[in-house]
Write a structure and sequence with these properties.
Length: 223
Amino acid sequence: MVHKKAVVAGSTGLIGSRLIELLVAAPEYSLVVALARRPIAASGKLQWRAAEFERLEEVLGDVRGSEPVPLDVFCCLGTTIKVAGSEDAFRRVDFDYVVRTGRWARGANARRFIVVSALGADAASRVFYNRVKGEAEQALGALGLPSLVVLRPSLLDGERKEVRPGERLALKFTRPIRGLLPKSIRPVRDIDVAATMLAAARADRAPLLVESARMHEAAAQLG
């Protein structure tokens, strides 16, 4: 088996924490680096690096190493305007930090860059959130990454560490009728989004875009 390395930006969030679990359990990864603001307990193949996106070259300089080991970079960064505090602060996370991570991945000759965007992402949207997500997708596409995979999940279904009242209310009403909703807009479980990311990393030829409808039950399909 060819051993690989992984870097996860946004590793303590809803999707990132699930993805870390899957990557640590995946036999093909010999090193999993979690980018996080606060230290996390390192064990076995899991290591922590400070999420300082203004100096990723310094923070991650030793990850690639001298060995020609394939590197996959996963980006699960995302916030809300309310949590961030302002539109500028939101854009700093969901655009600036995302694109900086992609730029580092290109410079590190990463094999694949897999990023979580959002349903409705559109650089021409009048909705600020969707527009920033779409602009980030465009900027990543312009970097010339060897392989870029963009996930556009619907409402995320999972237990967050942070409180998002709007999301919690939406889940309260949609969970009971989950099976009746079209897959394209049905809330998607956090573990299924994470499993979709791992499946994309494992694919010989991964798609550029994965819509929400294709993420459901991905965890069960990992085997």
